[in-house]
User: Fold this.
Amino acid sequence: MSYWEAILLGIIQGATEFLPISSSGHLILVPSLLGWTEPPLTLVAIAHLGTLVAVLIYFRRDLWQITKAVLAGLGQRAPMATPDARLGWYILAGTIPAGVAGLLLESFFDEVFGIPVAAAFFLLVTAALLVVGERLLTGRKQLAQLKLVDAVIIGLFQMVALLPGVSRSGSTITGGLWRGLDRPTAARFSFLLGIPAILGAGLLAVLDLAQAGTSGDQLPFYLVTFATAALTGYACIYFLLAWLRQRSLYIFAAYCAVFGSVYLLLAFAGLLPA
Assistant:
């Protein structure tokens, strides 16, 4: 592993975790395109920790308000009394579908992750989801108007993103648009909903690192990957929220469609791993 590969891995994870173009798909397909060996799990884990730090820092005020509201609601025996308190419980409810599916179907998802053409195909699914999301855009609902059923349905969309190549942010934004949220609000809830999932990946990363151990020679690569993923992730959260205030998801759909199609064509021609 070179510094160039460590930097690129951090950029890929930081950007694709939040832009609706699938981090899992890129972490599978980009190394295949560049002829790399599979990135070490410890380095991927470090990249996940970087994106976790990015989203926690960006939404620190939201998370603080939500946490205070939830605790106050529990103390007053009125857990759903305020919009921030409800939002906290809705995030928890929306997290359950993906958590249950991940536990029950872990071996299936692990097997699919070893098939690059599956990731490429599911990039096409992401493209279709983004187009459908734009077609479904009709509402102007804000987070304060979100209902429990909305959160659960958006959580079901997040469950689909367990498949490699299906973007978590893209699928949940689509779910939000279907439930009447506008683009920026759908993206904001998508990021907040993703925090437990990213936190879970971060905790697994810490366990992986503890079991694998680290050497002094590897530490600089870890630091470079972590910093690159965190900075790129923060920038991409800011960029996407700003982009969606006035622009559509179609450009991301086009990117996923082109990338997935090109990889499939080259793989079926025998030029890339299938």
